[in-house]
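Table S2 (continued). Query chain:
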Amino acid sequence: MSVMSELTRNGAIKWSAWRGDRAVLWLLALTIGVLSVAPLTRLVWAAIAPEGTLDFARLLQLIGTQKVLQATLNTVGIAVAATLLSMIIGTLAALLVALTPLRGKQLWVFTFILPLMIPPQVIALSWVQALSPSSPLLLAIVDLFAWFGWPLTLSNQQPLYSATGIILLLGMHNAPLVFLTVRAGLRRLPAELVEAARITGASPMRVLFTVILPLARPAIFAGAALSFVAAAGNFGIQAMLGIPGRVPTLITLVYQRLNSSGPSALPDMAVLSLLIALITFGGLAVSRYLGGTRDVRVSGASKQLQQPLGVWRLPVAGLAWLWILISLLLPLSALITTSLTLGFGQALNWQSLTFDNYINALWQYPAIHQAFFTSLGLTLMAVVILTFMSLFLAYFLSWQRSRLVSVLQMSTELAYALPGIVTGIAAILFFLKPLPLINVTIYGTIWIILAAYLSNFLALVLRPTLAGFAQIERSLDEAAQISGAGFMRRMWDILMPLAAPSAMAGAILVFLTALNEIQVSILLVTSSTQTLGPMVIFLDEGGSSTLAAAVGCLMILIVLLFMLIATLFAKRLPEGVLPWRA
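Corresponding output:
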């Protein structure tokens, strides 16, 4: 009788656990379906069948127009050129950090990664102000050269308002993406191969080109894929340089057309968004092919590679820090200089120094306050929801993987890989009409921005959370299950506390990304639902360059603050979760 009771009890436990697991899994599937799968499906359908029936003739006609063809060529050309520049810069930086004993390596990596964490619209604004003919910083440099007897002549044209300017800024901004992947690949290379090549008499350059770089090729092209996606979908830099420079790209064409025509242009914008997505996935496919045509796998553990620099140690270190000076400190100093003057182009001195722009940004302008608190509220809600979603989804991906779970992961990765403006168009198309059953529309409210955030950033939290689950012994969960603990009890008491540090690292990355983002929300904001990211562009377009500079400086300060807070807790996080840790 006791045996039968025990069997019955165990069966009840398993049935209860199964029901708990299944209920959470289907809730995740419903949520991801509504947030990601359904909007993207609606986007594709609106592009190929705007009237409810397939209309490929209209689609081809739109793509064949002169304006769309020019924007497409510009998008592909700029993305490819910027990716090549990112590959060169990022690979050299990774070789420097991974293979040489560079002094101050931790600080150098932090400053090299920092531009990636700064919103691209702020990066563009800082460079525009740094290289403007009326830039106080540039005028000071001209005066300095004149004092030494080397007169300089400044052009009246802004050199960044061109395709070349867009390529340069995109290439520098995305170089850290290549750096991160190549550095990770170099850390896995066995030092024994390099030592064997050295023993045979190979020079350092020959070792680099015949051993290290061929083995690191998959990592280099993986970084190139990330850089291409980021370049093709970067709205901030393309808008702030391309629109005034009359260099149309698909992403700026979508923005301008939708702003001028409103929702009536959505079917055409769906076609352009689908074209952006196809270019993105095409770049990913080419990069994957180029990086994986040969088997370069190596086996066995090894010590870390080190390449002594000898007499080149000081020149290499000088060039490395000179790059930080040019790529980071120069534009940021111009941004700070502009923010401390009353008018753009004024020289910064004790007479022109003012903090009025910061006072206005913090207390005097209601639109900026509203944008900040809207962004902060949306970001905090997104962080909380995504953290819990990632914890549950990571559980299924780690220990109960099924076809449905794999589809959910693929959906989250797809939503993250797509440019944010594509996510925004998909959200507008799906949420424009009232939701079925509840007959409520969220279009024009903050909730549509939140829905787009949840779709776009889930994968960003999920990746470090999966790394955290990989370090948890599954026997802990099995023991709790045998003792009768239900699914939610096991998650709350055992698994969540253990995986929380990794999930929180992902949450910090989402917070840094979403608080100042512009890609997703630029098409979703209204006069009553402004967010902080687009505010810089709106202020600069409205002629308030000094106020835009002050807002940009405050956004950078927020990024720095949270990066430093995350660094303080780095020892409690899995290795590699914080990208700026060397």
